[in-house]
Amino acid sequence: MTSSPYFHSKSLTMKKLSLLLSLVVLSFALQAQQTPFTVEDIIKVQSLGSQTLSPDGSHLAGIISDGSARFGTDHFRFRDPSYINLRAGIPVIIDTESGAETRMFEGKARVTGMTWTKDGSKLVFMEQQGDKLVLAYYDTGSGKVRYPKIKDERILATNAGITVMNNQDAVVVAVRAKGWMEKAMAEYKEATEGPIVVYDGSKDFLKWDQIAVTASHYEVVKVDLKSGQMTNLLPESTYSGVSLSDNDQYLRFSENQRMETSYTRNSGTKYQVGFFNLTDGDSIEYIYPKNKRRRNYRWSDDGMHYAWIDSGNVMLQSIADYQGEPTNLTKGKAFEDEDEKKAVKFSIARWHSTGEKILLSSKKGWWTINTDGSDLQMVYELPEEEEREKAPNRSVVDWSEDGNYLYVSYSEKDQWNRGIQRYNISSQQFEDLMTSSDLYSGWRFAENSDKVVFSMSDGDRPNDVYVSDMSFGNKKQLTNYNPWVADKKWTKTELIKYRDADGKELNGILYYPVDYDPNKKYPLVLEVYETFFNNGYRSSMNLIANQGYFGLRPSVDLEQGYPGEAWLKGVTSAINMLVDKGMVDNDKVGLHGTSYGGYAASLIITQTDRFAAAINISGKVNIISFLGDSPKIGTRNYAAAEVGQDRIGGQFWDEPLKYFQTTAVLYADRIKTPHLLLTGEGDWNVPGTNTRELYYAMRRLGKDVTWVNYMKGGHGAGWASNESDYHDQWKRMLDFYDKHFFPKEDEESED
């Protein structure tokens, strides 16, 4: 009997339904096997940090570390010149072709400054051994770590990093001058031990500023890796940008000499830029003599030419002709129209590796110009101002050797579509090389090959490291440090959009509770700070989702002078949208934040009573007393309020009402939300004494408040302490939310 098409079609449909049901059953079975993500798991998550790619791209060095690396810091010894605290991890070298991983030590080590020699035969670094640093290198041929026997008693320092000379046998590093430690410790002990400490306003520096200035001083020397011989190059000062020309002839540097404590930006310091001629042995020349104005030089890859901006024009000079007249590459060349010529202001994006071209940028677009001053052309015109807000974010990360292509990191502004593109300069067209909803970071292009290393995740789980050629069509995974996360319950993220009270569209990252049921309403916990767009593994939000809560990182449009209003306008609008959608229980909303976010949490609850619970982690509550409340970091708190993150926009004596309006403790009587305050006794950034003010005020007013001060903690409270405190802080936070989201009957009756 011949089967009819009807029965054949029905048979196929039944098979599809059967397969679908099997997949659903399998999915539920897998979910049932998964276990909750815990605080222990946060500590367990591993990542590869301090990555450095060999010049030929054949090997990637890095340090594997987990959450335990954060424990054990002695926060009370911040600014102590004798204290070294490199984080422990497992230094590894990964073969980018085979993926084979070599561990440089048998166990963990504390290393920094990993730098490859030009031929990739050695990986040079500094290792912490006890209370000192030693110079070392990993020999890829023998597979052994070797320690040059340095014939000098001066102390190695990390200030200048490590610069490997092209002969492969010597490096340039920083050392402390003889007698530096004695001087530095005397200043530190006088400020911390006394017995009498005098703060004299007539001195050039605040006391802790003087300690910081002394800490910034070092000498620059050359160390022979074979003999250990140390040769002096630069005398004691404060340097930055120390690097060598390709021919090992010139050591260039910037010098920043602080003259006094300054309360305004770009003052109180003198700058100069120079080079040391290693060929004649003792000649230091200055291409930019000491000046109150900073000048930023961009050097060619070979270190023989430099460019800078003067009145919006690009100036070019050769180190061999530093006393001559510089060449103005761009003056009068951008446009025919005289008004347009005057309006264009350039900045330098990058040199081409050949040194024959420079990539520039302006408000109009991207430009290229030959270093002989010819052929200035705009190769990419930026969208008009009104369109620019919607245009994708693009940033040049590499320039092809033939000069025809720009490699550009890419991220759209209205959805998670991210990755890397290639821009054809001739056709002026972008080409997608690798774009998706995945999250990419850490682009590292090999100097002498077409290999590229980068980090990637699905946006929810931890990153892994991948390698590809520059076509990005054959990426290969190099690391898989957290395979166990597949057995854990995990949140899923969503980019949400909402409008604040002023009608401005904002973004937020929503973290779904594990085992989400769309027919239920859930509690919501917000983690506040400033603005958010990209997702990515977030341990705190994954833990919140595993408690059966939604998590949200909402953006706010912070306005100069009125940060408190901005948080209220943005945060509450985001909550309203989720409540209106039936996803969130309006009576079960909490928030927390750390540092500036902690400050926001306390300030928000003085303006609204809609939160069931709020937690401030290492955040200030009194911006007025905070101005002088972090002595170890000098004038930072004044700058933050007047021109920085706190966004007051003026001095206290000029804008007292704005300071009052953004000081939570002054409005403690309005707070109706139960409040948990978490601080670290060793916090030199936001001292716990500031947060303590709100505890005393709320207690005096009979409010629901608890203050927990971790005696070994730093900035981050128990999270910046030891492992026991880390667990304790999370337990307190989760218990706090649970208590106020699901109050017991006797507690409800008391209300």
Summary tags:
eight-stranded mixed beta sheet, 751 residues, 41 strands, alpha+beta, Rossmann fold, globular, disordered N terminus
What do you see in this structure?
The protein is an alpha+beta fold and 751 residues long. Among the domains are: 36-134, no CATH class; 489-744, Alpha/Beta hydrolase fold, catalytic domain (Rossmann fold, 3-Layer(aba) Sandwich), CATH 3.40.50.1820. It is 20% helix and 33% strand. The chain is built from 14 helices and 41 strands. The chain has an 8-stranded mixed beta sheet, with helices on both faces. A hairpin with a 2-residue loop joins strand 19 and strand 20. Helix 3 runs antiparallel to helix 4. The protein is globular and about 85 Å long.
Residue share in β-strands:
25-35%
Average residue pLDDT: 93
Helix content: 10-25%
Report how far apart the termini are: 78 Å
Task: Note the total helix count.
Answer: 14
Helix- and strand-based class? alpha+beta
What is the spatial order of strands in the main beta sheet? 34-35-37-36-38-39-40-41
* Structural Rg: 29 Å
**Most strands sheet:** 8 strands, mixed
CATH superfamily of the domain at 489-744: Alpha/Beta hydrolase fold, catalytic domain
The fold-level CATH name of the domain at 489-744 is Rossmann fold
Which CATH architecture of the domain at 489-744 would you pick?
3-Layer(aba) Sandwich
Q: Poorly predicted ranges (pLDDT <50, ≥5 residues)?
A: 1-10, 23-28
CATH class (first level) name of the domain at 489-744: Alpha Beta
Shape: globular
In brief:
With 751 residues, the chain is of the alpha+beta class. It is built from 14 helices and 41 strands.
